[in-house]
Amino acid sequence: MTASDKPRTRIQQRNINAIQEAALDVFSANGFRGATVDQIAASAGLSKPNLLYYFPSKEAIHVALLAALMDTWLAPLREIKDTGDPVSELLGYVQRKLEMSRDLPRESRLFANEILQGAPRLSGTLGSELKPLVDEKAALIQSWVEAGKIAPVHPYHLLFSIWSLTQHYADFDVQVRMILGDEDPFEGAQNHLQDMFGKMLRP
């Protein structure tokens, strides 16, 4: 049994959680290249040697965060069911993605930064987990189009549009809030996106 296989004590788990929470702040603000182990350790309230006891490198922390994020990231797409009303299923997906941007903005920016850098630590997961799921849901959307249950749309570009229009509110949060002032961006976004995609999808 290696050290990593041994059950963690409460203190060890608390420190790991603190490191990952701090790293999420640092990576989402600075990107992988701009983040440093020193920044993460300081944010976590730990010494650098203590942090390196749990994670041997900045990349190891980043990989652990991305691995945990993928399940969260794919969950809203998995929830699209072939047994529901097609328009309602897709509008529900829009809503879930917008809620994710509202509730998990740091995670959204972490994911966006990784993709913008060419996904060096996520490319394998994108091919093995994301693409098969997207292909499955795109085929379902195409079947709804062919059955006349939704208006003709390109399944993949529909999903890309949903991603871009919902994740914008997390990835460009500062710009959105600067322009809107005191207005809650997510209240207006919910109404706008539901109306826009509803008109697009209804046959």
TrEMBL record:
GO terms for biological process: negative regulation of DNA-templated transcription. It comes from the Bacteria. PROSITE patterns: HTH_TETR_2 (PS50977). This is TetR family transcriptional regulator C-terminal domain-containing protein. Residues 13-73 form the HTH tetR-type domain. InterPro entries: Homeodomain-like_sf, HTH-type_TetR-like_transc_reg, HTH_TetR, Tet_transcr_reg_TetR-rel_C_sf, Tscrpt_reg_YcdC_C. Keywords: DNA-binding. Residues 36-55 bind DNA. One of its GO terms (molecular function) is transcription cis-regulatory region binding.
